[in-house]
Amino acid sequence: MRIVEDGDIRVSAVAGAQRPAARLLVGADAFWRQAERDIRAAKTRVYVQAMTFEADEAGAAVARALVAAGAPDRKVLVDDFTRYVISDAFVASPRYLGDRLFRQEVRDTHAMFRALQREGVGVRVTNPVGWRLDRLPFRNHKKLIVADDVAYIGGVNFSDHNFAWDDLMLRIADPAVAACLAEDFGDTFAGRPRAWAAHFPHVSLYGLDGRDNARRFSALLDEIDDARDSICVVSPYLTFPFFDALARAAARGVAVRLITPLANNKPIVRDYLLPAARKAGVEVRLMPNMIHTKGMLIDGRTLVLGSSNFDFVSYHVEAEFMAILRDEGLARQFQQEVVEPYLARTVPASAHRPKATGAFSFGALKLASWLIRVARPRHMPVVQDYR
Asked: What domains, with CATH codes, occur in the chain?
């Protein structure tokens, strides 16, 4: 694999390489059944990264697999978010101060990481929040597993409440792809994250470091602007500037459809989207339950997956993975195993009447977007040992 330096972008040119063996694992159970086998079978390295990693049934299973793995090189990156938010609730919230089960899960999560360290697993925390909590919005949002020459990216975090949400992971069994993602993990673990792009047959991978994401996301916005027939987006938190590009596509006659949750844990996003979509001519279908899946199928052939929710936070400040795949088999699998089953469960946008006006929700999100850009630290510690 040839690496061509272009500033802090790494472009991999692979001559004569075979198409990476990739498939979607839809649902946390399907993902974990396969990932656990890969982790336990690894002989050289196991790297695990998540934004949320909790000591409940799901997270403990990941920890047990790491301990059981025969690989001598075992490391974990977990975002500092998981020390402040457990089971989708703030650890310091007065509402949970007297909740003994909640407090026990908080203690168990700390104990789990200390136990991994005693077992020889390296554990580091990404994007430390700091005592003032002013760095809380600036997260490392990546989800990654590398087990020898197999890699996973997608949206699944390691906690029961995330496992309960509809989601997926992309499994790629390819030494070059795994090496690329392992290098990204190693860079972050060492405290020197970088933005990069790597191009393989039928797949382009992007690592976004949260500092210059707009330039990296331009590849996706170009794909949307080049769409000719249809775009189907699945996302819980779609916002500008990605929605603006979709609106432009709809204006030139592209059939744009969005599948997003009715039971959204961030309802302000839903209430912004519904009137904006109606005005732009974007069809919205609402999943009754919360979904965490993020994917975009363009013209039935190009599939975009990764950790990004296609929202302004991801666009401006979060570290992310993104894959643009030109693989008819994966596109067909996404259509058959994600889009069609989801559509069978959805209700029309008219089934929900937002409590807040679209203008209020849009204004609040625009203000939040401006604030995170203004408040983004110029120099932020990106990793520290778990303690």
From this structure: 15-196 (3.30.870.10), 210-375 (3.30.870.10)
